[in-house]
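Subject: Protein record for review, amino acid sequence with backbone structure tokens
Why sent: The fold of this protein is of interest and is recorded here as tokens.
Notation: Tokens come from a learned vocabulary of local backbone shapes, not from coordinates.
Attached in line: The record itself begins immediately under this heading.
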Amino acid sequence: MSANDIAANKERFLEICRTHIHREGIDKFLDYLDSPSSDFYTAPASTRFHGAFEGGLLEHSLNVYDCLRTYINSQRAKGALGLEYSDETIALVSLFHDACKINCYKPGFRNVKENGVWHQVPTFEFDDRLPYGHGEKSVYILSGYMKLTREEAFAIRFHIGFAGSEDNRNLSNVFNMFPLALALYIADLEATYYLENDQHKRGEEGWPE
């Protein structure tokens, strides 16, 4: 992804935040994202799968926002399912659901064999210096800056759904109690597998980190 693409995505990201998120603490959190202490705007979204390039995490966050917003605002979601969430909640849980990935990826190399010859290609290595889990780490980070509603916290905490190590009965209870958690899970899957993941298009297996 080019520097111009990253800059455009960052501008759109900030515009969404400033338009829809008015929670106390949001300004300080955005200052943190733009500080030397955070690589949010340039980090990849995974090591080898979806968004495995500079700016991938930012692009993925915007894709999840678009998927969740479209789903929540659909006639079926509002009518038959009765889902009603504010623009602030939709933006907050989607744009920040992967805050746990900040400062977790480092540039590296991996060996690839092409035409019988091995050579090194650039890649990213996962190096989490705050191994607090996935969704729970995002909630932990966000809670240091702003107050989340219970449903927002549960949605972010369980956005990885059945790909995690959760007891299926516990996860089913969460999805029944907090429909936003299921909606965010679906939006994350849609963005990951249908908008970003080249492995899916080639028919390869593997869960993107």
The two ends are 19 Å apart (CA to CA). The longest helix spans residues 3-20. Residues 199-209 have pLDDT under 50 and may be disordered.
